[in-house]
């Protein structure tokens, strides 16, 4: 894979596109070739900054044979159409979270990629951090015993200027939801990756602070997993000053807690020498940054690792770690939470 060159294009030049560009620039055999934005002046400025060509249309961009992978960085509810165009042109896609804001749109992308024989990856960089993978390995090795509780907490602060910064923010059509769909969906993904499929959810959502948006700024959900475990999701963009996101996985033989991307608890009934090494490695090394109050207060490490995984998947003709089907799972959970909140009833996830 290291000897194979991959050319990239970015569609959409919002804030997250900068993270994609930095990640691509850090990979020796990757190069950003082109960019498109609905506002051409923004594409030009982005292209000048990152030494790539600004295109006036997606169709023109996709005719470039040097483009092998397209990063979809548009508003969440505008992922489908550029993704379908890229797929039809035979390009692989890496799509920012969520895959799309409805299951129907998500399925259209998945099916189109399957028919065309191209790869689709959905951005969930949390899966690629060492602490996250330590937990997944321990689960696979049955070190937790029977899983009992799995919980995700994303309690952040977003001011009014954040929602006013783009006309799609805080709308059902283009944001697909609020604190849960936009901010907490990373934690929804990692929670179900650890705990397994969700059987049902029951939820309450509210808009406590941000009265000028259509969607929720706070949500609480109770989850029942198919393996018999239970759990919770708590998320908000209304609190001050906010806290680091946290994931808890607890079983009959062990427990682990991640804050941001650092292990803060790692305890098992059957200890081994590597357990103490991990605790020592993370002792005093808690997170210094995160998206608590500033969505751009993040690094590009996870994006880089995920882009490299897609490149390797293409070279090895395998599925990427977070393919379309994996990316769909968190959308299904979030949509079920919204349905439960609206109906006041538990919702089964099939």
What does this structure look like?
- With 350 residues, the chain is an alpha/beta fold.
- The protein has two domains: 6-124 and 300-321, Rossmann fold; 126-297 and 330-348, Dihydrodipicolinate Reductase, domain 2, CATH 3.30.360.
- The protein is 37% helix and 23% strand.
- It contains twelve helices and 14 strands.
- The strands form two sheets. It has an eight-stranded mixed beta sheet.
- Helix 1 crosses helix 11 and helix 9 (185-195) crosses helix 12.
- The model has no long low-confidence stretch (mean pLDDT 95).
Write the layout of secondary structure elements.
Layout: E1 6-11, H1 15-25, E2 30-36, H2 40-50, E3 53-55, H3 58-62, E4 69-72, H4 80-88, E5 92-95, H5 103-116, E6 120-122, H6 130-140, E7 147-155, H7 160-164, H8 179-183, H9 185-195, E8 198-206, E9 218-225, E10 230-236, E11 246-251, E12 254-259, E13 262-268, H10 273-282, H11 301-316, H12 324-343, E14 347-348
Parallel strand pairs: 1-2, 1-4, 2-3, 4-5, 5-6, 7-10
Antiparallel strand pairs: 7-11, 8-9, 8-14, 9-10, 11-12, 12-13
Helix pairs in contact: 1-11, 4-5, 5-12, 9-12
